[in-house]
Amino acid sequence: MVVSPRKAGHAAFLPEEFVVPTLVAGPRFQIRPITVHDVVKDYGAVIGSLDRLAGRFGPEWGWPDREFTFEQALIDVAWLQKEGQLRRSFSYVVTTPDGERQLGRIHVAPSDMRGVDAVVVFWVRADEENSALEKELEEFVREWVTTAWPFEVVRFPGRDADA
């Protein structure tokens, strides 16, 4: 069972001394924590990818709703930012190196599966589906969460057969 970031518990799941990554970059993207300042680009990325995202996350996540409004996006992004401040889950935007275009998101959250430290869910916008960028991001994210984060076992729902 995987816990949706929306349903994650209320306790911090990382050691207090762990310094949460704030900016990392690959050759064709940068990754940084999501903030309310990202809402315009994030809304565009979500709306442009509704079918893909609904298929990936499914009804149990309740996101994104077909009637996803800008106001809901603002609440969603602010909530994700606050969750990171409380160290309960961490959400990142993936942008072009210049920060001008949002390419997707990454969510790092606690797992309710025994023996699993975290779940990591990420997506790219629909126009990057099955692209070289998506493959590069997947390789990067898998390496990043197993080397830069204090996790031994990580699951990637929607990407791993057993997750």
UniProtKB/TrEMBL annotation:
Which Gene Ontology molecular function entries are recorded, alphabetically? Answer: transferase activity
Keyword field: Transferase
Its recorded name reads: GNAT family N-acetyltransferase
Q: What is the lineage of its organism?
A: Bacteria, Bacillati, Actinomycetota, Actinomycetes, Streptosporangiales
